[in-house]
Design goal:
Length: about 100
């Protein structure tokens, strides 16, 4: 059970603030009250974004000192990692079985 969620408050394509909130509706309401009707909240728990980073096309962008931008990577949850590793393990097991000429 998730008790709290983390949201980036986006206004004018920039992360204005990062907040912990109980749900999206409340986070979005508070964001619009604070930054205006065009502002919105985005779940950012799986992204290492920071205040001042950009947000466009559904992605976070870190603004580097030289003015360039680097996409902020998605950090998978523990459950996603386990699922990925299980799938990878199954594929490796089948590949090894094929190489050895047997069935898994």
């Amino acid at each position: 059970m998730i008790v709290h969620q983390v949201f980036a408050q986006i206004s004018e394509g920039t992360v204005q603030n990062i907040m912990v909130c109980a749900d999206y509706e409340l986070a979005n309401y508070l964001t619009r009250c604070t930054y205006g009707d065009e502002a919105f909240a985005v779940d950012c728990l799986q992204y290492a974004c920071a205040i001042g980073d950009g947000y466009r096309d559904g992605r976070f962008w870190h603004r580097d000192e030289d003015g360039s931008e680097t996409e902020v990577p998605y950090i998978p949850t523990a459950e996603e990692e386990v699922s990925y590793l299980k799938n990878e393990n199954e594929q490796l097991t089948l590949t090894v079985a094929d190489l050895l000429g047997g069935a898994a």
